[in-house]
C-alpha cells in the first residue's frame, strides 16, 4: 500500500509506523490470526495488542508464519492493571513475550494509570528497556497529571502515550504536553467506535473523494498522532490505509478540531475501576 511505511521517530531514535493495526476484541486463535495475516498482506507492519486482550498468541502466530523479517514488523503490547508492581510486571512481560513468540518487544506500555502503583511498574519497564528486552517503553491512558507524577521519579521519559483520540476528543492540552516533553501521542479508538455520521465529516469526504473514516484518520496523521484503527475486514483495512495520497487543508483541520466535545466512548482515565 502507498506509504504504509510512513514512520515517526520516537525520542530514543526508534522508528514507529504512523499507521498500525489494532486487535482489541478479536478472539485469540483463528479470528485474530487471520486478521493479522490479512493486514500483513495489505501492507500493515505495526500491530497493537495487550495481555488483557487475550490474543497475543494468535498475533504472534500470524507474524511468525508470515515469513516477513522480524525487523520489518513493529509489535506493541501492554501490562494489565492486576500485574502492576515491579516483580509482577517483569513476570507479565515474560508471559507476553512467550505468547507472542518474540525475543524483543518493540513497544511495551503501562495499559492504565493504576493509582499508587504505576510509578513502581514504570521502574520495571525502565529495567526491561535498559536490558534490551523492549526497544521502546511508554504509557497508555495517562493524563497530564499522571505524567507529571511519573516524571518526578522516573529516569526514562515515556516514549509514547496511547490515548483515546478523535475529533470529539481532541486532547489539545495533552497533545501539547506530550510535544513539550518529547512523548509521541498515539490514538486508540480513532474512528469513534463507528460513530462517523457527522455532517462536517461527510462534507469533507465528498470534497476530497474519500470516506469519513479516511478523513478522520488523515486528521490524526496531520496532527502527528500515530493511529491504530481496527477491522477484521480486508476492504476496510485497505480503506483505512488509503490516507497518504491527500492532505486536509488548514481550514478543514480547524473545522475538525472545532468538533471537540471532550466526549469519550471508552473508559475515563480519571475514573476507572478495573
UniProtKB/TrEMBL annotation:
<dbReference type="InterPro" id="IPR023210">
    <property type="entry name" value="NADP_OxRdtase_dom"/>
</dbReference>
<keyword id="KW-0521">NADP</keyword>
<dbReference type="InterPro" id="IPR036812">
    <property type="entry name" value="NAD(P)_OxRdtase_dom_sf"/>
</dbReference>
<dbReference type="GO" id="GO:0016616">
    <property type="term" value="F:oxidoreductase activity, acting on the CH-OH group of donors, NAD or NADP as acceptor"/>
</dbReference>
<feature type="domain" description="NADP-dependent oxidoreductase">
    <location>
        <begin position="19"/>
        <end position="260"/>
    </location>
</feature>
<dbReference type="InterPro" id="IPR044500">
    <property type="entry name" value="AKR5G"/>
</dbReference>
<protein>
    <submittedName>
        <fullName>Aldo/keto reductase</fullName>
    </submittedName>
</protein>
<feature type="binding site">
    <location>
        <position position="111"/>
    </location>
    <ligand>
        <name>substrate</name>
    </ligand>
</feature>
<feature type="active site" description="Proton donor">
    <location>
        <position position="53"/>
    </location>
</feature>
<dbReference type="InterPro" id="IPR018170">
    <property type="entry name" value="Aldo/ket_reductase_CS"/>
</dbReference>
<comment type="similarity">
    <text>Belongs to the aldo/keto reductase family.</text>
</comment>
<keyword id="KW-0560">Oxidoreductase</keyword>
<dbReference type="Pfam" id="PF00248">
    <property type="entry name" value="Aldo_ket_red"/>
</dbReference>
<feature type="site" description="Lowers pKa of active site Tyr">
    <location>
        <position position="78"/>
    </location>
</feature>
<dbReference type="InterPro" id="IPR020471">
    <property type="entry name" value="AKR"/>
</dbReference>
Amino acid at each position: 500500500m502507498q506509504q504504509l511505511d510512513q514512520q515517526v521517530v520516537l525520542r530514543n531514535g526508534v522508528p514507529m509506523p504512523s499507521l498500525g493495526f489494532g486487535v482489541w476484541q478479536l478472539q485469540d486463535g483463528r479470528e485474530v490470526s487471520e486478521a493479522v495475516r490479512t493486514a500483513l498482506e495489505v501492507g500493515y507492519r505495526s500491530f497493537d495488542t495487550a495481555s488483557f486482550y487475550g490474543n497475543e498468541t494468535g498475533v504472534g502466530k500470524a507474524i511468525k508464519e508470515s515469513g516477513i523479517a522480524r525487523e520489518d514488523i513493529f509489535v506493541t503490547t501492554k501490562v494489565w492493571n492486576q500485574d502492576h508492581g515491579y516483580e509482577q510486571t517483569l513476570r507479565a512481560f515474560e508471559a507476553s513475550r512467550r505468547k507472542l513468540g518474540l525475543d524483543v518487544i518493540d513497544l511495551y506500555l503501562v495499559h492504565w494509570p493504576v493509582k499508587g502503583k504505576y510509578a513502581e511498574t514504570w521502574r520495571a519497564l525502565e529495567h526491561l528497556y535498559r536490558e534490551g528486552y523492549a526497544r521502546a517503553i511508554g504509557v497508555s491512558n495517562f493524563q497530564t497529571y499522571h505524567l507529571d507524577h511519573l516524571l518526578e521519579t522516573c529516569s526514562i521519559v515515556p516514549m509514547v502515550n496511547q490515548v483515546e483520540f478523535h475529533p470529539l476528543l481532541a486532547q489539545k492540552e495533552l497533545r501539547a504536553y506530550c510535544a513539550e516533553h518529547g512523548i509521541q501521542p498515539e490514538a486508540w479508538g480513532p474512528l469513534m467506535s463507528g460513530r462517523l455520521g457527522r455532517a462536517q465529516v461527510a462534507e469533507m469526504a465528498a470534497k476530497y473523494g474519500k470516506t469519513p473514516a479516511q478523513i478522520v484518520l488523515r486528521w490524526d496523521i496531520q496532527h502527528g498522532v500515530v493511529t491504530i484503527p481496527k477491522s477484521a475486514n480486508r476492504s476496510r483495512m485497505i480503506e483505512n490505509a488509503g490516507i497518504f495520497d491527500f492532505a486536509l487543508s488548514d481550514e478543514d483541520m480547524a473545522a475538525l478540531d472545532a468538533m471537540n466535545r471532550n466526549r469519550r466512548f471508552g473508559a475515563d482515565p480519571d475514573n476507572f475501576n478495573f
